[in-house]
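Ligand: pyridoxal-5'-phosphate. Inputs:
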Amino acid sequence: MVKLSERIGLISPSPTLQLLKIKNTMKKQGKDILDFGAGEPDFPTPEIIKERGIDAIRNNHTKYTPVTGIPELKEAIIKSYMDEQGFQPGEEQIIVTPGSKFGLYLILQAITDPGDEVIVPKPYWVSYPEIVRYSGGNVVYADHLKENSLFELTADSYTEKFSGKTKAVIINSPSNPTGMIMNSEELKKIISACVDKNIFLIFDDCYRRIIYTDENFESPLKLFPDSMENIAIVSSLSKTFSMTGWRLGYTIASEYICKAMAKLQGHSSSNPCSISQKAAVGALLDDQSYLAPMIDEYRERRDFIANRFNEIGNISFVNPEGAFYFFADFTYYINKMGFKDDGDFAMDILNKLNIIVVPGTAFGAPNYLRISYANSLKNIRKGLDKLEEYLKG
Ligand SMILES: Cc1ncc(COP(=O)(O)O)c(C=O)c1O
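Predicted complex:
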């Protein structure tokens, strides 16, 4: 056996992807699993998008593509981002990546030197700290877990962590796992502060189309078009269009950032999947009337869970404004039932109820559970009935 690199020792496997493995094993054992761990929509990819993919295969669009994406898709991104977010990027300001996760990876590899600090929101999406560490950077947390903070994504939570070593901040709005959205005032404040100190702002908006409030979701680039040198928007088709397996995301940033990312993409993945790129054109430009019913259904599930949690009692949570996760504090039950921590609690729930939930510790928030409602209302009802009986029993 060869010695593994020190670098690879800096990171751990993704806990949410490990859960997927557990689920598949339990399914093979014939168990009827209720999965509230999923980080992906339960809806299939819309037919209209699938047809585009099938056409791409039939028409032999199955070869290498330009590193940063096919021109047709870039045009679709330019048009759809302008229509939806009110900012028109140039073609050289876009890089299409195999999923937005890889986009984040490329940016952090491109800008981070050893010892640089990158401020990450906490609770965090599981991959942020790992990607930062792998880039050689040090992770610093913007704390949204403070008592009574209601997970608010404030500019202060970031600026109070600024130091001479701060290289970048990552904002995730709507947030995974909390579902919170950063409002325009806070967004303006944090962008100004970053521009002022020449800090890079990475804005992960992969859930931006899954929103339940009427508040305007504003693009940092629309708010500060002249500060693009300090901003990258990292977007995904995975969640909005139920395309997680197609691996398709894109980053909008200055040309110098896209070029740096492209160098690494060219020597690693080469390009995003040619077929997925063709399907993505359809997702962005074809009729999207399937979207509103999906959001309505997520909203209905969210409201259902909020009501049930209130009925069960002693579970504290903030109603999510976007994405499809509840991030709820189960301290009362963890203590009452004598569990060591949220990991043991989640494992007991899995073993006794065949229900998958993700322990909060995976997101830097002990005593919480993340409950994904990317599952049918029928299953959610069944799962919460079982959970209520378990908690009260
Ligand atoms: C906050 C956040 N960012 C990025 C991603 C990556 O998504 P993808 O690589 O499928 O585009 C995820 C996926 O779970 C996520 O939750």
